[in-house]
Amino acid sequence: MPIRKKTQAEKAISFWFFAARLMRPISPPQTRFMDRLTHDILIVGGGAAGLRAAIAAAEVSNKLNIAVISKVYPMRSHTVSAEGGLAAVLATMRSIDYDSFDLHAFDTIKGSDFLADQDAVEFFVQAAPDEIIRLEHWGCPFSRDPDGRIAVRAFGGMSVKRTIFAADKIGFHLLHTLFQRTLMYENISRYDEWFVTSLLIENGRVHGVTAIDIKNGELSLIRSKSVIIATGGAGRVYEFTTNGFIKTGDGMAMAYRAGVPLKDMEFVQYHPTALPGTGILMTEASRGEGGYLINKDGERFLKRYVPKKMELGPRDILSRAIITEISQGRGIEGPHGSYVLLDLRHLGREVVEKKLPFVKELTENYAGIDPVNEPIPVRPAMHYFMGGISTDMIGRTEIVGLYASGEVACVSINGGNRLGSNSLTECLVFGATSGADAAKFALENQMTAGENPNSTLVIQEEKRVFDEILGNEAGEERVSTITSELRALMERNVGIFRSETGLTEAARVIRTLKERFRLITVEDKGSVFNLELMEALELDFMLDVAEAITHSAVARRESRGAHYRIDYPKRNDEQYLSHSLARYAREAPRIDYLPVKLTKWKPMERVY
Ligand SMILES: Cc1cc2nc3c(=O)[nH]c(=O)nc-3n(C[C@H](O)[C@H](O)[C@H](O)COP(=O)(O)OP(=O)(O)OC[C@H]3O[C@@H](n4cnc5c(N)ncnc54)[C@H](O)[C@@H]3O)c2cc1C
């Protein structure tokens, strides 16, 4: 049962049940216990998007039975690690012509290299300020100006300061605020540390999910009228990333397998500044507060690439600039490869300690340097997925009752390149629209498919998890080996600079990795916290996501935003002013295109 719904009596029963289980020897699940749990709305993911969706649904009606399911405790979702801030036009309050919705929209669209849907961007920028004010009322401790107003800072690709922040720990404060708010609603319950393995979709309608309770290894069917996928990105498909270990693209792969197209998957964002070795992010706020990027000669090299914006240029261009500097011999060699320097020394101790305390903490602990006195070694690391499950402006997918929001979704407001600090706002804006619409859907529709829905799908899933993966004794392949090979391949061939040869080779190798996956052995056959089994399931998801990225990248023979083809270095609006849609097919993904929606901004050359 979901954890917040238990009565005292149920708690007592659970305790004895759990105690009895602990005394049992660890062994493969003897009985494939198939529980039946039912909700009106099931939200997969407890990050910013999932929690915001839950609140929005609960606000529609206190009669709705809403559940949030997450493979980690919600506060451990990747959202918690966000540092720099979230964007919205609040500063109009300062002076009438300081900022405008049109300016935020234009910055976002130009940042996207004109691939964002302009109607969605207009909706997004207009909904953003209310989300900030709501968070403020719910208690989010935003940083303030001396006169008490919410402070704003500069961020890459934004024309004015419009990034709202809480020192450099916005994710921590934002996620706590949302989480505490969900506790107010009696009708929101949670499944913490449950791993969703598949979506149950039949006849174009979602009926629920299958999920493993990680603490006892049992697979359950959870039925619901509507399902919102808010499982975040897939950064761990790459070797060098700022993303947490749990970001393995589960939701993208589950939707894709069930027939929902993945949109714009070739657009993978590298963040210019991460610590070599660990990939720990040095937030863009450090450049927003005035930090410099310098090469081995102490030169601010960005004057050659983005002369007007310098350190506040967009992430795709800055990442390419750093790699170019390194390849032309102006980087610095270190034990974890070449790097350039992020210099904060001129900002002084007070600015660093007050506005960038987390950067100081991280560099001291993980690089052994004090950024007040020494420049920080940095290099680009994979950071964010512009692409994801294709949705409309509400968050609806092609499947009736199925929604997606947050990083897992592609609405699209980010197009070819996301501007820093738009993502958290996106989680709030589209988390809210998905939650409210899923609630409306659940009020207007009945639970479908009778007592034992989709039994074939559930039996198939049980067979996949327990026989084909956990029970497989077929071969000598290891999950960790295939995972490392996949990540290195994606980094090498599907990273910042791409070519037809490299991409085609990657597509071929991913196929062989998929073949080898069938020969894996999961050595831990236990049922309690079997993390090896979870890693195997995650690898299976990552292989599908990697294939969708690679095939979408082969098919786009132009350079746009974060997708840079050395063999096609120019943007080609005539042929490619469209979103790619990757659809699952047995042999290889099928790639179609969908035209970009333009409203008032004509595509122009993107110079900064
Ligand atoms: C280091 C870092 C710093 C960042 N800083 C900023 C910033 O300053 N500003 C900004 O706008 N953006 C920032 N971003 C990006 C932004 O934080 C993310 O895009 C956003 O938080 C994603 O939120 P989400 O709710 O979509 O997903 P997440 O927060 O990733 O949550 C995903 C949820 O899905 C659950 N889940 C996944 N798979 C399963 C499964 N199989 N079964 C059950 N549950 C599952 C997870 O348990 C988790 O609860 C940053 C990202 C990183 C990595």
Structural notes for this entry:
The chain is α/β, with parallel strands linked by helices. The chain folds into 3 domains: 291 residues, FAD/NAD(P)-binding domain; 108 residues, Succinate dehydrogenase/fumarate reductase flavoprotein, catalytic domain (Flavocytochrome C3, Chain A, domain 1, Alpha-Beta Complex), CATH 3.90.700; 119 residues, Methane Monooxygenase Hydroxylase, Chain G, domain 1, CATH 1.20.58.100. Helix content is 36%, strand content 18%. It is built from 16 helices and 22 strands. Strands 1, 2, 6, 7, 8, 9 and 17 form a 7-stranded mixed sheet that branches. A hairpin with a 2-residue loop joins strand 13 and strand 14. Helix 2 runs parallel beside helix 5, helix 4 packs across helix 11 and helix 6 crosses helix 15. The longest helix has 25 residues. The chain is globular, with a radius of gyration of 24 Å. The termini are far apart. About 3% of the residues have low confidence.
